[in-house]
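To start, an entry.
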Amino acid sequence: MDRLDRISTGAIVVLAVWAVVLLMFNGGGQGASKDRLPGKGQEVQRYIDPNFDTKLALAKKLIASGSIEQAGLLVDELLKNYAFEGQPYMLKGDIFLRKQQPVQAMSQYRKAIDLNPDFLDKKTTVFQGKKIKKTVDEAQVLIDEALAENPGNEEQKEYKKMLYYMLRKIAGSCS
């Protein structure tokens, strides 16, 4: 047995011990079962404040009824308290759409998609890809018009970058 064989044997022993340690501490042994993992079509359950769903439903009703100002206040509260949930950003985007501001709506949809890419996955219950794509198309027209009038407008250039980002997300989505 030469020196390279001894090094290889030592490396294999170290990797085997490392694998055993990982299995012991990461639940890869008897504690892991397929029952705990979400299957196809099942959504991952996570803890969400029950008031979140109630307030979300109320905000949707307010938007649908045309009470945009009240919905805006409620959505702002949701964004403040649940900044890491995508749904309030989707509602904020819906409010901007109601106000005929597709560029701002696209900005909110981007935040929502960054937090929850399932908004662009047709196989999920939260899919909203068609609405997002239509909004991005409307925003593209406005951004192109604004840049045609003033090519040096930095704000519109930033919106154009966001537009390309959204187009890539939509192109790579499951819709």
About this structure: The mean pLDDT is 87.
